């Protein structure tokens, strides 16, 4: 071994061995979803998880896991469920076990499963749904991502709506078989079958993609298996790496978009993570996808002579194909060299325990052997491929059709190699005369066919088709109200159940253009519904007779109005009896004015023609009227011949008015009458009544003066008598202006409008001298100005 090569090998072994002591050493995995076919929406969910064996993570790996199903459109959680580990931990077989052991390449496969039932009617969104499973952590020695020991996994699968256009959309995700344990030799061309098959025959398209990290907390104290909605974070690539350069090379790691075969000629040592997106197409339309996460180790393989194994079929050394009957075997022989390791493969997958130069084959397949030097990490040699056909190994029975509870038939077709004869069996009984490759039957049971190969005489039995009848379709009709009757002036929604599509009849007449589970009955009659389930099976409900509820005429006696709330309760009368009174102030069947308060109150009486129906309502107005009041002065002074209005302020909404006496009034029934040309003192009484009959009255006395008088003298000397100038009758003239002048004609006093501040003999607070003063008095516009003199005596 060259020194440089040895140094690199030792260095990489130092990097590789500590992996067994750190982290959980997750390697990769994916999710699969298989339709079980017995019931619509019944699926088996499988989680494949690859781990490094012998590590703490593998030893402590949980035997259960939690998955979530989410709607793609809005990431809404649809359901969660648990998967359980099934079977034992299966090792991944390496062609060169010595070299794998040198680099601690010891992987196991853990399989988790759960059978779940998804209601098709809940999964109808055209954008589809996804399943996610999260776990932690990745290998600390990974070379192409940042912080690998604190980076987790999200396994991800998308699937389409289960129910589309009111029909069951049957689909299973791609299936991936077991894989070989492989490492990549630096500088050597490397290929690896990483593709799968689709149970429904859908097209699969492969592409490189960035692996997903775990969403949320990770690490030793983080959440191990959270259920959280997408979007999920990508892992963080180190500089120089991405989805299409996960393993540097010439070329770098690639995948065939049609076959799923990986290829690379690596140019850098290391442990490299990558992911593959497998998209599922039906009729050119994408219906789902699965992400597969994995990792490869690139090592420096020392230059050794590559072994060149030679293989042959025992007794047939010159041919690479053979055909045998079921139960027989073909012996495959490789060249023997004591310095070689041997590993047989079937269909490119290493066979567990097949490490001898010979192999007894009893199953159809393509067989080859991989040979490597013992105790040396060298390149391996691959033999030619020998094809073994086992007559009847591909004998299968396919079934089309469905057995409903009492109707239906299924066509069975046996497939296998050509040039055979057929004989059919049911429940261990020979079916006479059934000798073709197909059989149509209306009966449940266990069916298979025996195929006889004419040339070799081999007999092969197909697998068994177990035919069961589906449960009977038992539709029923329920009403939205729970009663089979239509309320007056209404309709009754009917709901059919027990199927997927529905056909309605009323009085033996079909109601066309209605496949819905709901029907609105607007008139009475007898209804039946025929339901079709997801398999096309039908069943008819029992008849349901819908009647009409007789309407009721509801009356409520009038309610007398009352004046003010301080009145006794009034017993209400409604017909027909048994209804409910409602409104302000209602106590059972009485109206209580004190509780209601002043106002116009709407009182209702409601009677339901049936318990589920809306009530028929009669309405009355209960009036608790306010007691009227009148704000009117007790007395008023005016002058003879004056015309003016009386303007009382009313409350309590009076509508009728009566004034007595009517003398001088323009309208004795007006709320605010006008007094015209009053001549003498008079007293008026007004009676006011509101619409409820509540009454009130008030009185005003009017004093009439013919004129205002000015005395000849007054003595403002502080003796308490005649200290201000009194003008008798001046109150009758609210617009009067009294002005006083001295002997030089100067104004010493002016009252302004109205004589509200009588003259006290002073001017600006100074006493005026004794003397005669002239005055003018304006009383009303239509009256002349009074002029005169007045003596001020001290």
UniProtKB/TrEMBL annotation:
Keywords linked to the UniProt accession: Signal
InterPro entries: Ig-like_dom, Ig-like_dom_sf, Ig-like_fold, T9SS_type_B
Residues annotated as domain Ig-like: 418-547
A Pfam family annotated for this UniProt entry: CHU_C
Highest rank taxon of the organism: Bacteria
Signal peptide range in chain numbering: 1-21
UniProt name for this protein: Ig-like domain-containing protein
């Amino acid at each position: 071994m060259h020194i440089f090569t040895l140094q690199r090998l030792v260095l990489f072994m130092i990097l590789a061995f500590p992996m067994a002591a750190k982290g959980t050493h997750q390697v990769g995995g994916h999710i699969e979803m298989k339709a079980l076919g017995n019931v619509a929406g019944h699926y088996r969910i499988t989680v494949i998880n690859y781990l490094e064996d012998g590590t703490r993570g593998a030893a402590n790996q949980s035997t259960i896991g939690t998955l979530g199903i989410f709607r793609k459109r809005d990431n809404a959680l649809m359901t969660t469920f648990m998967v359980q580990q099934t079977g034992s931990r299966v090792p991944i077989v390496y062609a060169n076990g010595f070299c794998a052991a040198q680099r601690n390449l010891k992987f196991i496969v853990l399989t988790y499963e759960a059978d779940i039932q998804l209601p098709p009617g809940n999964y109808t969104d055209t954008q589809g749904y996804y399943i996610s499973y999260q776990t932690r952590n990745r290998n600390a020695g990974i070379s192409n991502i940042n912080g690998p020991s604190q980076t987790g996994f999200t396994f991800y699968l998308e699937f389409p709506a289960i129910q589309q256009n009111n029909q069951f959309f049957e689909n299973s995700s791609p299936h991936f078989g077991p894989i070989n344990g492989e490492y990549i030799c630096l500088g050597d061309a490397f290929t690896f079958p990483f593709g799968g098959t689709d149970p429904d025959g859908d097209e699969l398209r492969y592409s490189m993609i960035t692996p997903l990290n775990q969403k949320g907390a990770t690490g030793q104290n983080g959440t191990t298996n959270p259920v959280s909605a997408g979007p999920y974070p990508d892992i963080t690539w180190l500089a120089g790496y991405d989805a299409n350069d996960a393993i540097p090379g010439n070329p770098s790691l690639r995948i065939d978009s049609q076959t799923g075969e990986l290829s690379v000629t690596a140019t850098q040592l290391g442990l490299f993570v990558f992911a593959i997106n497998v998209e599922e197409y039906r009729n050119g339309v994408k219906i789902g996808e699965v992400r597969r996460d994995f990792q490869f180790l690139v090592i420096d393989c020392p230059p050794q002579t590559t072994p060149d194994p030679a293989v042959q079929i025992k007794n047939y050394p010159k041919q690479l194909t053979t055909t045998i009957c079921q139960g027989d075997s073909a012996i495959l022989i490789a060249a023997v060299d004591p310095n070689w390791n041997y590993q047989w493969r079937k269909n490119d997958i290493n066979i567990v325990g097949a490490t001898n130069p010979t192999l007894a084959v009893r199953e159809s397949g393509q067989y080859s052997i991989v040979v490597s030097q013992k105790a040396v990490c060298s390149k391996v040699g691959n033999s030619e491929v020998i094809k073994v056909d086992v007559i009847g190994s591909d004998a299968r029975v396919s079934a089309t059709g469905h057995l409903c509870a009492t109707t239906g038939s299924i066509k069975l077709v046996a497939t296998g190699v050509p040039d055979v004869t057929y004989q059919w069996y049911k429940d261990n009984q020979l079916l006479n005369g059934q000798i073709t490759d197909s059989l149509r039957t209306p009966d449940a049971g266990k069916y298979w066919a025996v195929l006889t190969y004419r040339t070799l005489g081999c007999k092969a039995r197909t697998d068994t088709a177990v035919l069961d009848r589906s449960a009977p379709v038992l539709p029923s009709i329920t009403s939205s109200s729970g009663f089979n009757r239509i309320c007056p002036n209404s309709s009754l929604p009917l709901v059919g159940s027990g199927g997927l599509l529905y056909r309605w009849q009323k009085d033996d007449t079909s109601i066309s253009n209605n496949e819905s589970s709901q029907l609105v009955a607007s008139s009475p009659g007898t209804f039946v519904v025929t339901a079709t389930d997801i398999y096309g099976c039908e069943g008819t409900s029992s008849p349901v007779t819908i009647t009409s509820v007789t309407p009721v005429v509801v009356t409520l006696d009038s309610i007398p109005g009352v004046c003010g709330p301080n009145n006794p309760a009034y017993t209400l009368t409604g017909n027909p009896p048994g209804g409910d009174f409602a409104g302000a102030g209602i106590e059972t069947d009485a109206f209580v004015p004190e509780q209601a308060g002043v106002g116009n109150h709407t009182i209702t009486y409601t009677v339901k023609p049936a318990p589920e129906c809306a009530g028929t309502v009669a309405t009355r107005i209960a009036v608790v009227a306010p007691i009227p009041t009148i704000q009117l002065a007790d007395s008023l002074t005016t002058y003879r011949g004056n015309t003016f209005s009386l303007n009382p302020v009313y409350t309590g909404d009076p509508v009728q008015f009566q004034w007595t006496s009517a003398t001088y009034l323009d309208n004795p029934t007006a709320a605010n009458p006008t007094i015209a040309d009053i001549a003498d003192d008079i007293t008026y009484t007004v009676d006011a009544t509101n619409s409820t009959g509540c009454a009130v009255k008030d009185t005003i006395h009017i004093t009439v003066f013919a004129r205002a008088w000015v005395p000849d003298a007054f003595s403002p000397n502080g003796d308490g008598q005649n200290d201000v100038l009194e003008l008798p009758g001046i109150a009758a003239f609210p617009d009067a202006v009294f002005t006083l002048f001295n002997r030089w004609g100067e104004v010493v006093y002016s009252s302004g409008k109205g004589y509200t501040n009588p003259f006290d003999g002073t001017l600006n607070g100074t006493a005026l001298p004794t003397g005669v003063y002239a005055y003018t008095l304006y009383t009303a516009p239509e009256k002349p100005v009074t002029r005169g003199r007045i003596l001020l005596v001290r």
